[in-house]
Predict the 3D structure of the following.
Amino acid sequence: MVPIVLEVTCSLVAWLFLYVCFCYWNQHRSYEWSCRLVTLLHGAIVTCLSGYVALSDGPWPLTHAGSPNTSLQIHVLSLTLGYFIFDLGWCLYFQTEGDLMLLHHTLSICGMIMVLGLGKSATEVNAVVFVSEITNPLLQTRWFLREMGRYHTLLGEVVDFFFVFLFLVLRIMGGALIMYAMVTSPDPSWLLKAGGLAMYIVSLGFMVEICHFVRRKMLKKYRSWTSLRSVNAPVKTNGHLTAH
């Protein structure tokens, strides 16, 4: 257990050091800019690592829930746990996030600590990390595009589409499959099952927010299209079309 604590501590120090470096290199930017750079880098790295563990290295999370932790799973979760501790501390200090995000971070930290302490169930938790973090780089890219005034471009539309698509397909649908495998398996701890269900409910809360966002965006596009159509429509005068 001591080596795992040391590994998590090193991970926390590494993410904090990286944040300090980004703050130094981007002194003309806000602290949130530097924090989101760390989040973007973490999302990209952990998505690749957890994806490799879940899809290639194994074991398969849908059939081996509750299996003993592998060394690679421990490394990935230790790296992720260190980041989540850093990010939760940052969010609490700067008070930038709402209750739903704080609950998400708290449940994630508790779940990873439990799995690393028990020595099992990293298989399904690693899979949850994968389906959760794969949309994070896109989420941060949206924020950076807004800050740079480039969100309302084709690139912004592409990022929004893939963010919503991957969230619904992987985090909601894929997450449901992982949760079903975890709940129906006799091996995982009942406390971990309860925590997993709570995490999925949080994801559903995020989904509601995303659906509201999509609805607002589609209504805005529809109103813009109808307004443009009315401006370009030919006007009739005494039964004849006026010339433009």
